[in-house]
């Protein structure tokens, strides 16, 4: 007799949004950036978020990562409901359980690669796990560059430092906002391959906002937003399929 398929539980998901809405302003000038968005992201998966300008991508990312509070609805990071936390608790959760990668690398020029990577640990007064630091630097291709400063690195290498910094705290999820937006084609490909490696080999969960169909094609699934609402999803699509869907969304 075949084994029954295991029913998924909340523990299988890194991020869950339940009917999340976000409104900016009040009365007649109010703008609804998100409109009752519900989604669940499985652990160890790579999800890209796309949509036209003004579709709510940044608001979605900010709410999912605890950088902004929804007007209504719930946001869960693992077993913690972010939308119920106070500011101090929320800051602690972001620092310890979410890794951030932005278009701007946000590295400190006076610090070495190793010092930039371990900065979140030092700010939290946490012990630096040297073997894991070496593992992370090797994983991002910077094992021999720990003593260098950002000015001695290419743009792609600097973004790799930012990814290593996001990984060093063993986060629940890595949130990437246009991580290849400032890079040339070759460096972009290397960073995207690294994010794919982070998911496949390090079992991390990655949530990425991008405007680039090629970047989105590296993800396991691409979620589309339009006018603050979910507007479909593609699983392991080609860049051409993503571009076609985006063209359709422009008329949506």
From TrEMBL:
Stretches assigned to the ABC transporter domain: 15-252
Pfam families, A to Z: ABC_tran (PF00005)
Coiled coil (residue ranges): none
CDD domains, per the entry: ABC_MJ0796_LolCDE_FtsE
Alphabetic keyword roster: ATP-binding, Nucleotide-binding, Transport
PROSITE patterns: ABC_TRANSPORTER_1, ABC_TRANSPORTER_2
Name of the molecule in the record: ABC transporter ATP-binding protein
């Amino acid at each position: 007799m075949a084994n029954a398929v295991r029913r998924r539980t909340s523990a299988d998901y890194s991020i869950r949004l339940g009917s999340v809405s976000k409104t900016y302003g009040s009365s007649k000038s109010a703008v609804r950036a998100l409109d009752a968005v519900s989604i669940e992201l499985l652990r160890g998966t790579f999800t890209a978020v796309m949509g036209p300008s003004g579709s709510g991508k940044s608001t979605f990312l900010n709410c999912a990562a605890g950088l902004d509070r929804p007007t209504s609805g719930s946001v869960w990071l693992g077993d913690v409901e972010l939308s119920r936390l106070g500011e101090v608790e929320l800051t602690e959760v972001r620092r310890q359980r979410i890794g951030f990668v932005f278009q701007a690398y946000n590295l400190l020029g006076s610090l070495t690669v190793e010092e930039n990577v371990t900065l979140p640990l030092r700010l939290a007064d946490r012990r630096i796990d040297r073997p894991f630091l070496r593992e992370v630097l090797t994983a991002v291709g910077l094992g021999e560059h720990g003593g260098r400063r950002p000015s001695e690195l290419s743009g792609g290498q600097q973004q790799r430092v930012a990814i290593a910094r996001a990984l060093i705290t063993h986060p629940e999820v890595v949130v990437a906002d246009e991580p290849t937006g400032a890079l040339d084609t070759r460096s972009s490909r290397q960073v995207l391959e690294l994010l794919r490696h982070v998911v496949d080999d390090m079992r991390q969960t990655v949530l990425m906002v991008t405007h680039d169909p090629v970047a989105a094609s590296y993800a396991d699934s691409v979620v589309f937003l339009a006018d603050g609402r979910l507007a479909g999803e593609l699983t392991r699509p080609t860049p051409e399929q993503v571009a076609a869907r985006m063209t359709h969304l422009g008329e949506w």
